[in-house]
Design a protein that fits this description.
six-stranded antiparallel beta sheet, globular, 136 residues, alpha+beta
């Protein structure tokens, strides 16, 4: 079940912040305590020379998605800082959106681990990313 406040929280956060999520054109889809779903439209500034998503844009989508999930599990006033990431780029696409769904692996006092599955509009896997974050 999606958190009905997620879109408002996203809009409020990015009212005062201009970071990579804005540059990538990320869009919130849904969230709950175990998952966050974001999407990213393919646009010229984030395409590589062959017209597909750049690896950096796919990683950025996955990283922001995992961070938003981790933010649901760190104490108020703290931010989850990425300390380790493993990225497997599997496929790519030259049209539509990339979708990232972060799934909570572990939420502890000292770290949060999330696995992110990045797919295209047909649910074909583009990347699998595992991020480990610490609250600071």
């Amino acid at each position: 079940m999606s958190d009905p406040d997620f879109h408002r929280q996203w809009a409020d956060f990015y009212e005062d912040v201009d970071d990579v999520a804005v540059s990538l054109g990320l869009e919130p889809v849904s969230a709950d305590d175990e998952h966050v779903h974001l999407r990213m439209p393919l646009r010229p500034p984030i395409r590589q020379i062959a017209g597909m998503f750049s690896a950096a844009s796919l990683f950025g989508l996955a990283d922001v998605c995992a961070t938003w999930l981790a933010m649901r599990h760190v104490p108020q006033g703290q931010f989850p800082l990425l300390v380790q990431s493993s990225t497997n780029l599997i496929a790519n696409t030259s049209e539509g959106h990339a979708h990232a769904v972060a799934t909570l692996v572990k939420a502890g006092r000292t770290l949060v681990v999330a696995q992110v599955r990045v797919t295209d509009d047909t649910d074909r896997v583009l990347a699998v990313v595992t991020n480990t974050m610490v609250p600071r």
